[in-house]
What does this fold into?
Amino acid sequence: MDGRTRWLALVVLCLGSLMIVLDTTIVNVALPSIREDLGFSETSLAWVVNAYLLTFGGFLLLGGRLGDLYGRRRLFLGGLSLFTLASLACGLATTQAFLVSARAIQGLGGAVVSAVSLSLIMALFTEPAERAKAMGVFGFVAAGGGSVGVLLGGVLTDRLDWHWIFLVNLPVGALVFALSLALLPATRDRSADGRLDIAGAATVTGSLMLAVYAIVNGSQAGWTSGETLGLLVGAAVLLGLFLLLEARVASPLVPLALFRLRNVATANAIGVLWAAAMFAWFFLSALYLQRVLGYSPLEVGLAFLPTSLIMGAFSLGLSAKLVMRFGIRRPLATGLSLGALGLLLFVRAPIDGSFAPDVLPSMILLGCGAGMAFNPLLLAAMSDVAPKDAGLASGVVNTAFMMGGALGLAILASLADQRTNSLLAGGDGPLAALVGGYHVAFFAGAVFAGTAAAAGALLLRAGPSPAHADSAIAEPAFAEADAGS
It folds into this structure.
């Protein structure tokens, strides 16, 4: 495949990924309209988001492994088709049950697309400088897509109605499908074992789904309730059974040796912490802007625009140059440190704040930090892995981001709520108590980001591994699949 075709293929993969990333945030702006139109209660409305997160988080690992075994383009096209058709169903939904069910199917399609996208990029770009640049572009889409979702959700909900946040996926999905047929290579790894570890797939998917359900429902059911604790214990039991199975079967879904690779294990731990910090910043700062400063949905989206532009500048060129000049460790640790500083600045956000002095500095620091950190983090998570396990590694790092974000947001939202209630009980006014709760959550998010920065600086191997150096200059062991792939 020539250079121009590879970069066009990257654009296609990024468009597919952008649809998935947008859907995790675009819905939040429209939730009040959805509740009013379909008659959701406050409790049941959460399932418009949670149904998507549940299947998305549960099927990431399985989706990545299926791509390794049965063809990544085939799985990408299948997941994309499922996601697009489910988007149509969401856009046409007139009942609560229909919308929630369609959202769950969307999550399943999104998991497959996300899990195989990174491994396709690793197969397309084998030269170190090109791979760093390509991962930078993909990282920008992953990091900046959330803020674009808020802006787009505000525009569509304000100007049209909530159905269009889903229907907008149809032309994009059709375009990506057509371009994928023309540009993505129909490849399959010739060294991958064709057998699927059914028992491993069932136990890890069940464990992830129980864990995600417990996390996203914990604030409603209570973190120490029998339901939440029972679900978490069930998830832990299934995870233990999964690890026992993987150590014994001949063709495991997840070879446990993967986690003995230092950079892979460290990058995934960092991913959990960084996702928790990013979710805290994204959702809590949006709430601060809307509920405290009185911004409209469209104004909230515009407030995130500086961050998106800065991340774009880093991801589309600067980050790759930093990686080629300094390796992955220093840019990653520096970026995460800038993110922690940006979150710390939000700890002083006042009730009567204004954008330029109280919001913009944090947005700039977080934009620089995310733009600088995502590229080396993705490279670290994928670089030590053999080509036959690229889809699996992609699924693992996506799962780390997903679980870290969901768990971090649940923990930080609970901290904010407890602090707000405490301040209200102490006699503070509603706005002062609300801001005080946000301050605690922002500080905890800064601690997460700072811990991730320290782990990157101290634990990551500074240079590329020998395996990475070899794979960077050699053609990956992919064979052209049959036309049906």
